[in-house]
Specification:
Number of strands: 0
Mean pLDDT: 87
Strand content: under 5%
């Protein structure tokens, strides 16, 4: 079963070949939901510990586009939409662990909430710690408490957003372009946090589809 799972066909986009020309949006959405449900079921039902690792590392080998083709257009409060955001978050962390760690550390210093605790990263959190956290969150999606994994991801985004906003304020006078970049990033992270938190609430009620 594990060998069958590892075939890229699950994400490779070949599911769309049955729809020549313009893709039927309804068919695309159905495929997105079906593949998301199938992925979770197949991983959770497997006795092979390598299966989760393969899924976590999928974008390392095949790139984010392979996942985006199936799930990126899904609604933010859906199962495929949630999985897309989790993978996107992991890729963001892996692309710049030092920068992410800097924002996370600042976020822990300025936030007066329990989000740093929910996210689960140690303080201080360096690049290796945030890389490990990214993998632990994605592992939790597939072999742990799914709603809790979404809550951790949402909390992580809130801490990052707070850190980006704080550093943007520091940079406003000396580097307004950098401040604008950080403010935009904070806005996107805050939106992702809200979307993941909404998915977590739905997942708690077994209503995330």
């Amino acid at each position: 079963m594990a060998d069958d799972f590892h075939k890229p066909a699950l994400f490779g986009g070949r599911e769309f070949e049955a729809f020549p020309g313009a893709r039927d949006p309804a068919a695309v959405m159905r495929i997105a939901h079906d593949t998301a449900r199938s992925l979770l079921a197949r991983v959770r039902d497997s006795d092979d510990p390598e299966v989760v690792d393969r899924v976590v590392r999928f974008t390392d080998e095949h790139g984010l586009d392979a996942v985006a083709e199936l799930w990126a257009a899904s609604g933010p409060r859906t199962l495929p939409g949630a999985l897309w955001r989790i993978y996107l978050l992991r890729v963001m962390i892996r692309q710049d662990p030092a920068g992410v760690a800097l924002l996370f550390q600042r976020g822990t210093e300025v936030l007066a909430t329990i989000d740093p605790v929910i996210a689960g990263a140690p303080s201080p959190a360096g690049p290796s710690e945030v890389l490990e956290l990214a993998d632990r969150i994605l592992h939790g999606v597939f072999d742990g408490d799914f709603p809790h994994a979404l809550e951790r991801a949402a909390a992580f985004c809130r801490v990052e957003a707070a850190g980006a906003t704080s550093i943007a304020d520091d940079q406003e006078a000396a580097s307004p372009e950098r401040a604008t970049e950080l403010t935009t990033r904070a806005s996107r992270l805050a939106l992702m946090a809200d979307e993941l938190a909404a998915c977590a609430r739905l997942a708690h009620d077994d209503a995330l589809e």
